[in-house]
Amino acid sequence: MDFTLTEEHRMIQQAARDFAKTELLPGVIERDEKQEFPKKQIQQMGELGFMGMMVDPAFGGSGMDTLSYVLVMEELSKVDASSSVVVSVNNSLVCWGLETFGTEAQKEKYLKRLATGEIIGAFCLSEPEAGSDATSQKTTAIDKGDHYLLNGTKNWITNGSSAEVYLVIAQTDVEKGHKGINALIVEKGMEGFEIGPKEQKMGIRGSDTHSLMFTDVKVPKENRIGKDGFGFKFAMKTLAGGRIGIAAQALGIAAGAYELALEYSKVRKAFGTEIANHQAIAFKLADMHTQIQAARFMVYKSAVDKDQGNDYDLSGAMAKLYASQVAMETTVEAVQIHGGNGYVKEYHVERLMRDAKITQIYEGTSEIQKIVISRSILRK
């Protein structure tokens, strides 16, 4: 066991930290208030290689490992979770899925542009009646010979109106259940594809979340990912890696809140001394630091499992479950340490608290993670 980051990993971590402070921090409060998508910052992250971190350089990617990706996600999320979730979706759910299961033609046409950040992608699984129960797909993709006819609605789609490429999960054969589901590549602008209004969210307000409607959209057969009926397995395998990205996001949100609370406790005075000198505050900081460090080890372990070719379903689910819990608890305590100042926008912690909650919900709720964990340990 070696808990020391390599020099290369430290350099990647520092690059992400510097970018977050110089490019994401300015204007982050205003973007949250206005629900403004961080288009400029996403373009800059593409130039830094953050949008296709694990993609082979042959397809425009950075060719880095999962641990590098996790380090970047953590640092970005300390400052702006609305930006980091775009990085997570593009890397974990779109680029990884296309590179791992896509055809060479699909990689040439879509992956190269996605990996460089020239365009971004979206992953479309959730529906009004199919959130945690991903097998209950109502969106249909009827086989018409040389194309599929796509009909249905997807909701809670990150990058909903900003993406150019959408990986859509749809039911082709109802009688086959989850074995009759396919994954299709849909392009913005295809006839019959409409984007609904932007969702009014509690947190990650800069993130571009929309419902999508498909009405007789013709999707060419060559846009199917994998063999007929592979869609559900594609979604589950892709989401298993996506959990690691969201776990890293939760870790970053927690660490960002803790760092702000620690700094504040050293300058804010009460009863004649800095509040850090009061045991009530010092013990809060001790708990926060301990929980974050534990979450960090779990998140890093899941990333290393993926890099080493080990089964990462269990470690990824545990990392997401615990890190998201730590994010919620830590941000609440950070607001408490800031007192009245914690309840106003300029101190940032109230935004981090609002952003933290979604990490317990998307890409598999905490309850779903417990199902994954329990099934894994009971099989042994």
Task: Describe the fold and architecture.
The chain has helices at 7-24, 28-34, 39-47, 66-79, 81-101, 104-115, 231-265, 279-307, 313-338, 349-357, 366-379; strands at 121-124, 140-143, 147-158, 165-171, 181-187, 193-198, 209-220, 224-225, 269-270, 273-274. The protein is α+β, with helices and mostly antiparallel strands and 380 residues long. The two termini are 24 Å apart. Helix 8 packs antiparallel against helix 9. A hairpin with a 2-residue loop joins strand 9 (269-270) and strand 10 (273-274). It is globular and about 80 Å long. The strands form three sheets. The chain has a four-stranded mixed sheet. It contains eleven helices and ten strands.
Strands, helices and their partners?
Blueprint: H1 7-24, H2 28-34, H3 39-47, H4 66-79, H5 81-101, H6 104-115, E1 121-124, E2 140-143, E3 147-158, E4 165-171, E5 181-187, E6 193-198, E7 209-220, E8 224-225, H7 231-265, E9 269-270, E10 273-274, H8 279-307, H9 313-338, H10 349-357, H11 366-379
Physical arrangement of strands within the biggest beta sheet? 1-4-5-8
Rg from alpha-carbon coordinates: 21 Å
Number of strands: 10
Q: What would the average pLDDT be, to the nearest integer?
A: 96
Strand content bin: 15-25%
SSE pattern, N- to C-terminal: HHHHHHEEEEEEEEHEEHHHH
Multimeric organization:
single chain
Give the count of helical stretches. Answer: 11
The level of helicity is: 40-55%
Contiguous low-pLDDT stretches (5 residues minimum) are: none
Morphology call: globular
Helix-and-strand structural type: alpha+beta
* Span between termini: 24 Å
Major β-sheet profile:
4 strands, mixed
